[in-house]
Specification:
Layout (H helix, E strand, L loop, with lengths): L6 H10 L4 H7 L7 E4 L2 E4 L7 H11 L2 H9 L26 E2 L2 E2 H22 L2 E5 L6 H9 L8 E5 L4 H8 L7 E6 L6 H16 L11 E5 L2 H6 L7 E3 L16 H7 L1 H20 L6 H15 L4 E6 L7 H13 L16 E4 L2 H4 L4 H6 L6 E6 L6 H19 L25 E6 L4 H22 L7 H18 L11 H8 L2
Parallel strand pairs: 5-6, 5-7, 7-8, 8-9, 10-11, 10-12, 12-13
Antiparallel strand pairs: 1-2, 2-13, 3-4
Helix pairs in contact: 1-3, 6-10, 10-11, 11-17, 12-17, 13-17
Length: 514
Amino acid sequence: MPEPYPESLFHHAERLRKIPLRTLFAEDRERSFLCRNIEGIYVDASRQRLDAAAWADLLRVAEQVEPARSDLFAGMPVNETENRPALHPALRDPRPEGLVVEGVDILSEVHRQHQRMREFAETCATRWQTVINLGIGGSDLGPRMLCETFPRASGAPDVRFVSTLDPEELNAALHGCDANQTFFIVASKTFTTEETQRNFSAVKQWLVEQGVGSGEVMEHFAATTAATDRAQESGIDAQRIFPFWEGVGGRYSVWSTVGLPVVLHAGWGAFEELLAGAHAMDEHFREAEAESNAPLLLALLMLWNHTFLGAATRAVLPYNQGLRTLPRFLQQLQMESLGKRADTHGELQEVAAPVVWGGSANDGAHAFFQLLHQGSQVVPVDAIIARGDLENERERALLAQCLSQLDLLASGRTSEEVEPADGVAPGHYVHPGDRPSTLFLMEDLSPRRVGALLALFEHATFSVAVFWGINAFDQFGVEYGKRLSRSLAEALQDSSVPAPGHTLDALLDRLRHR
């Protein structure tokens, strides 16, 4: 169980609600105690509603993380409900050996699988024009985002992604493909995921319809999975099955063989740099003192905004087009990890995990920024942008847009400062301000920087789960819904099958007799 929060934090929250951010900046122009610089990422949280006194008391909460952090990196079963370790840090550890879990040297096996990925990518580039990844959730979002972020390597195949049951998505991915030059990766931890298995069946049928001989169909498939036996039983050659472990959760799996599409798209060198950046953040998280530890800063900010200041949501706003899928990636990482009421002992409690949402900040400036600036609810913002070339007019304008929006969110615009049009009341122009934000200013979008950024969010998520006393690595909330959907599919087909659940009887009758 987490320790009780210091009573002083509640008093700080009440006090700081009444102090404008403009006042805090007037008292301390730099507010550097809320800024960190790690691995080419400048984290600027100076526009959060905190002062030095409140921050000092928040740091006391960070002491709770140390035992859990040690267990995480030692391969202990930090996923208590499933009695598993969380092995994602091991996937980017460059040591050749030394982490033994249940009699297996995980690091040695990680490097063996990475070498297999590298060799497979080299042969794949000479054989296939198009590679389509069939996966969903963590088996899709991570590699999809990274393939959007990193440039396509010379001679690399065209890597595409299919995740949903909607046949239109698969049809779009297959459009223009030469079946004889198209390869598929079936990415599924359990190798039972319904969406992935149905797409697997559909593309096998497509290959036959396109003239690929029945004896050659399975030569078009590889698998990334923790269920290697099921993959082999499906007909995929063992030499093209790339395993990872039960201790690697889907939302933490892009560092594993699930990252194979990234290797195919961007090259092994890019993937290796991605791992190196994440490992550097791992080492920082392990070794840095709390007052300079970037993941702990983010975790404490989430705790502050959502437990003490009552913010119900948080917006993730990337300014670079290559990071357009980052909000969806962080939705899964944080809402699947933190969206729970049961503590680690199964006791129900009240926690304040935020709804994570967002999208392109460029588009948002012409859409939901209206609510961010003048809506009645306060939404903390995470803005992410690469510094860019300030000599380039367009990149300079992009950075200016980002910084100006964050300043306006923080400082607002009073009725005395506005210049209303004739006949328009000044209140229409007022921005209340005091909307907290954190800026992630990246030197560039290189694989090393992006790897560090993702690991930063991973460790922040883990830390805030410790603060709230919940398990960041299970996801029982999604599993029962999947089971119900399978029963419902049977009921839609066969009217003698009773409707699952409690609210669908009338709707099923309507659907069956349309």
